Amino acid sequence: MTTLPNAFSGRDHDANPPAPPTADAIDEADLVHYIFIGDQKLPLPAGVDAARWGLERVRVQNPRIRAFLGCIRLLGDVMESNYAILHCSPERLIEIWRKVRKVTSLIREDIAPLLERPSCIPRLEEARASADTSLVMLSRTVLSQVERLPRELPADRLLEVRKLLCVSIGQLHAFLQDTFSQLMASDPRSQHDADYFLSKRFPQDIEEAEWLHATVGRLHRYLYDDMTPRRDEQLRPLIESLALRRRLPEGTAWVHGEIFLNHLLSELTPKLKEILALRGIRFHEMEILDRYACDLPVRCEQVLHLYRLFGDLQVRFGEVQGIEQAQRLQSEQDLGACHIAFSHYMEQHLLEVDRMLNDLMAFVPIWLRGIEKRRALLLHRSGRDQDSRTRVDGEVGLDDLFA
Question: Among 51, 89, 166, 326, which residue carries the largest CB count within 10 Å?
Fold first, then answer.
């Protein structure tokens, strides 16, 4: 009879076969982590986890890209031909010089420290090291030459500045554009749409999304900080009075309501129409906002018109009032019926105004979060997480990031 091999004999030393490798035994360098861009799942290089890249993205890469975009845009305002620089007016020359000095300061103070920070992404680290080397060479030539001249140009050195600008603007633009393209091409997010991130449209989309986000953010603050107290103090007491008394309000009650309705017409409606005119707003968002921008003022105008119409009727009832008791009673009954009818219609319109404001206040925060998730805002939104600087109402664009 043939004896079975030890592997199948069931002896004690074979009773406990080696256990499969556990997750802890797997080399961390072999793990592949993923990030999500919209609904796209993109892999990170082996050994780089999403938390580590997320920290670098927030603290280094996003501020770095914003700094490059701001400098490129600032320099783009003074990209003139050499002939134009040599023959422009002194006023235009001073404007060009100040912007070039501003760009050199931003490169020294913002871009240089950010390029010194290493990256956990191998391709991005190569691009960063190359950009840092280019910056060292730029610093020894263009930056040093520009910084040697005073910020306020003396009249006897204008020709020297013109010649320097002819050389330095092109070199600054080449450094910013080429380095930015390398950094963006090496960013893991560029796997989603590399051509888009490297195109001229990308900075434009960033600015349009910034402006839309800032404007909708101001609308959000206005609705909650200004409109909510006004509704509680002026609109809702008027609605309750109409529902209980079935008579049109008089005196202070109507004055407060009229102020609120006029405020919607003069303040809220223009804000909504301003946003409708912005580029970057999506079609379905425009449809929703357009409904509020059109329906709210119509409802307000109808309430104001009803109150004015009732005032005219009240005057007419007073004019046709006869001397006899029966005529006076009939006139009072008719006036009471008008109170009931007009108060009912006004209540319905005001309830609809209140409902639309509720809907608008629910829609705007959702809309704001949707704007933040868009591709053009991916590179800016996290900067606000670490940047404690607050924005001032007014024009908001990339320039505000470098004020």
Answer: 166
Tokens encoding 104:
């050199």
Backbone dihedral angles phi then psi of residue 279, each to the nearest 5 degrees? -75, 150
pLDDT tens string 360-397: 999 999 988 877 766 444 443 334 433 433 333 333 33
Full 3-state SS string of 374-385: CHHHCCCCCHHH
CA 281 to chain centre: 11
Write down the residue that tokens 């105008």 correspond to. 301
* Residue 38 backbone class (left: φ over 0; alpha: ψ -120 to 50; beta: rest): left
pLDDT in tens, 314-367: 766 665 555 566 666 766 677 777 778 888 888 888 999 999 999 999 999 998
Paired tokens of 350: 């005001």
The one-letter code for the residue type at 28 is: E
Token duo for residue 257: 């309501």
Contacts of 315-321 with C-beta under 8 Å, sequence gap 24+, read none
Name every residue whose Cβ is closer than 8 Å to that of residue 364 and which is 6 or more positions away in sequence: 216, 219, 220, 223
What is the token pair recorded at 61?
């890469």
Residue-wise pLDDT tens digits, 107-153: 999 999 999 999 888 888 998 999 999 999 999 999 999 999 888 88
* 36-44 long-range Cβ contacts below 8 angstroms, 24+ apart: 37/189, 37/192, 37/375, 37/378, 38/192, 38/373, 38/375, 40/192, 42/188, 42/189, 42/191, 42/192, 44/121, 44/188
Partnered with residue 34 across adjacent β-strands are 43
